[in-house]
Design goal:
164 residues; mainly alpha
């Protein structure tokens, strides 16, 4: 399986988290844990320390990748897929931050597919029309979020006579 289709660590942790929360507290509560006034990373870290090492961008990347991989049948996933295909990921992230229902729809999509393995997602994707465009959209997501990570890296200080 190509690297682009491989599950990331954040995806594995989200799957485990949502499966646990759904089993013990129900689907509605599992989804609501992400829908606070805090950032999504802070909200998840409130309930599980496994998200302390991740950033919001890691979690949003996982939610968007799942839109492509499982192609859930809700209007929010379709909207996200359209914007990803048009390479309007920044606009999509802005929408997620202000649209409670959009965020809820994407989280619900992830939760509903949490029981699927990486191989099952890949096989389903291969059987659908548009496999190549799905792979391209996954690359767009990875490129966008790797660009964000590059922006956040601290710049190395130049050694000057003042720094000595």
């Amino acid at each position: 399986m190509e690297k682009i289709f491989k599950e990331r660590e954040v995806e594995i942790q989200l799957k485990n988290y949502f499966q646990y929360m759904e089993k013990f507290y129900g689907e509605e509560f599992a989804i609501k844990t992400t829908l606070t006034n805090y950032s999504i990373q802070q909200a998840l870290s409130f309930f599980s320390k496994r998200f302390d090492s991740f950033e919001d961008s890691d979690i949003y990347s996982a939610l968007l990748r799942r839109c492509i991989l499982c192609n859930g049948k809700n209007v929010y996933v379709e909207y996200a897929n359209d914007l990803i295909a048009e390479n309007r990921i920044e606009e999509l992230l802005e929408d997620i931050e202000v649209d409670y229902l959009l965020k809820q729809g994407l989280v619900m999509n992830f939760l509903n597919s949490a029981s699927l393995t990486e191989e099952q997602l890949y096989e389903r994707l291969k059987q659908r029309k548009g496999f190549d465009s799905s792979a391209e959209n996954l690359k767009k997501i990875d490129e966008y979020f790797s660009h964000i990570k590059e922006k956040k890296k601290p710049k190395a200080k130049l050694k000057t006579s003042l720094n000595n």
